[in-house]
Amino acid sequence: MNVPVDSPRELPERPIESRLLDVLIRAALVLALVYLCFRVFAPFLTLMVWALILAVAIYPLHRRLARRLGGRQGLAATLIVLLAAVVIVAPTAALMSHFGDSVRGLVHGVQSNTLQIPPPRAGVESWPIVGKKLHAAWSQAHTDLPAVVANLQPKMGQLMRSALGMVASIALGVLGFLAAFIIAGIIMAFGEAGARSAERIFARIVGRERATEFAKLCTATIRAVAQGVIGVALIQAIVIGLTLLVAGVPFAGVLALVVLVLGIAQIPALLVTVPAIIYIWASGDYSSGPAILYTIILGIGGIADNFLKPLMLGRGVDAPMPVILLGALGGMATAGILGLFVGATLLALGYQIFMQWVSPPPAVPTAMADATAAARATPTAGTTVVG
Fold it and tell me: What's the rounded Cα separation, in Å, for the pair 231 and 253?
C-alpha cells in the first residue's frame, strides 16, 4: 500500500475583517508619524520653503559659476551666499540704523522742545479739500509745537511703538532671509542629487512618463516668479531714482540702489519714498505744482510692486498666464509674498494635471490599428466560418 507523501499544509486564510483591521492600524500609524514629523518640522517650514525657492531661482547662476571654478559646487554656493549677504543685508541694516536714529532724534527733539517746524507756505491754504485744515494744523505746529504734542500725547506712544515694532519685524525678516540664503547655498551645492530626488517623488505621484515634465514645470514657474520679482524691483528703482534725481533730492543714486535692494528682499519701497515726500514738502524749496507731481510719482512708485508683480509673472511657463496670475494673487492674499511663489506653482501643477486628465487618450497609430483589425478578422485554427 503506497502512503502518499505529506504535502505542505496550507495556512488558513485570515478573515477579511482581520486583514482590513491590519490595514487600518498601519494607516493610522503612518498618519500619526506624518503628523508628528510635521509638528517637529512646522517651525522651520517657511524658512525651508524660502530656501528651496531661492535655490531653484539662483541655481542657473550657481551652475555657471561652478563651471568657471572647475566644478567646485560648494565654493560657488559659498560665494553666492556671501554676495547676497553683502548686497542685501548690509544696505538694509544701514537703512534701518538710520531710520532708528531718526526716530530717536525726533523723540529727543519733542521731549526737549528743540524741534522746529518750518512755517507753511502760502500756497498750502489754496489746496483743494485738505488745504485749509492742513494749513491750520501746520501753523499751530510752527507756533506752538508743545501744545500740539500735548494734544497728541495719547497717540504718540502708540505711534512710536508701532514704528519700533515695524523696525524690529523688518530686522527679523532680513535675518530670516539671510538664513534662507545660507540653506539655499547648501541645497545648491547638492543640486543634481536634489533634482533626481524631485523626479523620483514626481514619479511616485504622477508616473515615470510625466515626472520630468512636472519637475520642469515647477522649476520654470518658480524661476518665472523670481524673475518677475527682480524685474519689478528694477522698475521701481529706475522710476523712483529718476524722480528723486529730477526733484533734486540729495543722494538720489544711493536711494535708488536702496530701493532695488529692498525690492529684491521684498521690503516695501515706501520706506524710501515716504521720507523723500516729507523732505520735498518740508524743505520749502518746491512750489505746489512740482511738489504734488513728485508726490504722485513717488507714491505710485512706492506701491507699484502690488500691481506690477502679477503682470510680469509666469513668462516662459507651460501654463496660461491667467492661471499663473490667479495662483500668484491667491497665494499672496493667503500667505503673503511666500504665497506668491507657492500659489503660482501649485495652480500650474493642478492645471496641468487636470488638463491631462480631461484630454482624450492618444490615438492608436494606423498601422497598428490595421494589424489589430486583420488579426480579429482572420479565423483561427478549428474555427468554422459560416458562409
Answer: 18
Contacts of 80 (CB under 8 A, 6+ apart): 58, 61, 62, 65, 185, 188
Q: Is residue 149 part of a domain?
A: no
pLDDT tens digits for 143-175? 776 776 666 666 666 766 776 676 677 667 777
d(CA 238, CA 236): 5
Q: What is the pLDDT of residues 116-137, one digit of tens each?
A: 677 776 666 666 676 777 777 7
pLDDT for position 74: 85
Q: Are residues 74 and 127 in the same domain?
A: yes
Taking each helix axis from N to C end, the angle separating 208-247 and 270-283, rounded to the nearest 10 degrees, works out to 10
Terminus-to-terminus CA distance in the chain, angstroms? 59
In a domain, 14, yes or no: no
Written as one letter, the residue type at 348 is A
Q: What is the span of the domain harbouring residue 331?
A: 223-358
* Model pLDDT for residues 358-378, shown as the tens digit of each residue: 776 555 455 555 555 555 555
What is the structure's pLDDT at 381?
47
User: What's the CA dihedral at 72, 75, 76, 82 to 10 degrees?
Assistant: 180
The whole-chain average pLDDT of the chain stands at 76
Q: Give dist(CA 120, CA 284) in Å, integer.
A: 8
Give yes or no for a contact between 228 and 263, defined as CB atoms under 8 angstroms apart: no
pLDDT reported for residue 385: 41
Does some domain include residue 301?
A: yes
Q: Determine the Cα–Cα distance for residues 64 and 72; give it in Å rounded to an integer.
A: 11
Structural domain total, the chain: 2
Do 184 and 305 lie in a common domain? no
Grid coordinates standing for 106? 525726533
Regions in the chain scoring below 50 on pLDDT? 364, 380-387
